Amino acid sequence: MTPQDVQAKAAALLQPISDAKPGGDNASYDPDYDAIRSEVGKLDSPTGGEVDWSGPSRFADVRTFVAVPVRVHEQVVGAVIVSRTPREQVQAIVQMAPRLVTGLLVMVLLTVAIAVASGHRGSRSLRRLARAALAIARGAPQAPELHALRTSRVHEVAALAGAVDTMRAQLQARLRYIDEFAGNVAHEFRTPIATLRGTFELLHDDPGMPAAQRERFVSNALAELTRLDALVGGLLALARAERPAAPERVDLQALVEDLCAERPGVRVEGRCGWVEGCAEQLEAVVLNLVDNALQHGGAVTPVIVRGWATATETGLQVIDHGPGIAPGHRDKIFDRFFTTDRHHGIGLGLAMVRLVCQAHGGEVTVRSRPGHTVFSVALPAAAAET
What we know:
By secondary structure, the protein is α+β, with helices and mostly antiparallel strands. The chain is built from 9 helices and 9 strands.
């Protein structure tokens, strides 16, 4: 049976149904219904079998079916089946396939091209970065390529260039520090060494030197040796201050009270908090400030060590009532080897105080006028114990 026969049979079935009246008995039932139903099962493909989706005619085998049951007196007596082949849609899909494949290939090629270009650009930036690092290793003070790479559109390259440039700046600052430090050390050691050399030459050249004069020369030599020993100790303390030990919780108040109890003429006021740091280095800070205050202003009135603490910071003030610091010296007192009394100091104590405070994330400042000098130390407060 052909599709045309199916349509004719369906029309014949529908005609009497459309004329039927409720309660009537003039509904028809076509005995060929079973044959129609059997024919419907064969409409899946023109050949009456399964669709061959791998064959060249697979698109012609695509069919769309719509079926509606036919009921008479609440009984299904047949079905109306309409089917068609969506040739236009299938043809459109077939025609679009080459364009889809072409578009996909173009996208793949563009992706590969972009990846290659990005990789080339990144490798070129890395080569420039390598040249800049090599120039820094050879001692070049500046690396202009780094400044350009810091604005690179490749985020990782820009971050790496920034890190290398920061390292370069730190190395340059370190080199300047070493040069200045070496010059200061050479200058400070030259004077006592020259004094010792002259003393020993005089003693060697004049065996008959009077005993009193010889004693004076020997005393001067011993004083210079003592100064050299103090210089070496101060330099070692300065070096340790630049490389703080592993931090620990330090009770700054207990440290201040223990140190000041050993020195008469010192009064402790207020209260410090806890800090994270090296107890030995913080002890050196307090000792240097207190000894400096006792030396310059503790003869008349007591030196006051006043502690304080807030939620985020803690510290202390060391107050003396001596002659004060000359205005021209206030900007230099924290410099290495600066001292106004070369007979009693080597000029490293306050420099070490500043380095320790900076290494602990804090600072030290000074205010001074005749009769009143205040050294203030501020440090980050330690987190509360859990």
